[in-house]
Amino acid sequence: MDTSPVAALLPHALTLNAEIEVDRIATSMREQITRRLRRRGCVLGLSGGIDSTVTAALAVRAFGPGKVLAVLMPETDSDPESLRLGKEVAAWLGIESVVEDIAPILTAAACYERRDACIRRLVPDFGKGWGCKVAISNSLEGKGYSITYLIVQSPDGETRKLRMPVDVYLGVVAATNMKQRTRKQLEYYHADRLNYAVLGTPNRLEYDQGFFVKNGDGAADHKPIAHLYKTQVYQLAEHLGAPEEIRQRPPTTDTWSLAQTQEEFYFSLPYREMDLCLYGLTHGLAAASVAPAVGLTAEQVEQVWRDIEAKRRTTRYLHEAPILVEPVLARSA
How far is CA 230 from CA 16, 54, 120, 154, 164, in A? Predict the structure, then answer.
């Protein structure tokens, strides 16, 4: 076991002074949104999860509850708890909220129909009453790379796990991404009518590794917690007094009709261990120093790092602005 000072200190590396950080973020939001963006308040999608809860609370610190609007956007596959908890957060913060049921929009755009048609290429009987989700194999298992699976559940409770061909996977994800893009369209509608800025809610794990939909949940005017590790988001949630039920709720995508964790869909490890692995990679630490803190071998830590780097490469385009042949706009100071 590595007994170096780095290994001993690593579990505490992500501890921050929550009070100072909250003030710093709120001040930055207020200055950047009012002076640079020239907007007078904030709109955000409120899911009842920890990230959107903390983002909403930070917006209230920056602008006051009267200039923050929460948009709650359930659809056919949403967990009803998300809507209930979103309303609870809005009430806790004293902010206005609106409910926009996006299921009719998604149905009209054939979101569910397109997804189900792709799934029926593997499961011909898939239809009404069935549940589905997408999962990946853990990169620490097997040959060191992730395999994507489709998991379906029949109305009588039978569950099947099937490996997806690339074209089926792309079709299912493309249809499902319509959910995030529809939500963002409605956030910008409310932002435009109020002259508000749209807030994004990704934490550092999600932002760094491209766990978002381009022009969907990846679109925003300001992303207040993108520099914070997930562990630190929970620290701010505790300091801000977020409802205990939300702080205890496991992170979920809330995108599929079957319950799905973020580790099951994207990350190699639970967020606490992923945070430390990402921190170690970002700061150039030795794998042997990180391993004891996350309960892995040095070889496993290196495998997690390879998975992080692979996700960074494959999702780099998500961060790209539209590409121009040559610069067009002159930038003034």
Answer: 12, 11, 36, 34, 30
Give residue 110's identity as a one-letter amino acid code: A
85 has a pLDDT exceeding 80:
yes
Which amino acid does the sequence have at 176?
Answer: T
Phi, psi of 139, deg, nearest 5: -65, -15
Work out the angle at residue 165's Cα, subtended by the Cα atoms of residues 176 and 318, and round it to the nearest 5 degrees.
45
How far is the C-alpha of 313 from the C-alpha of 120, rounded, in Å? 31
**Rounded Cα distance, 43 and 56, in Å:** 9
Residues 57 and 240 sit within 8 Å (Cβ to Cβ): yes
For the beta carbon of residue 202, count every other beta carbon within 10 angstroms: 22
Strand ranges, E, within 73-113: 96-99
- Single-letter code of the amino acid located at 267: F
- pLDDT score at 6: 56
Global pTM reads: 0.92
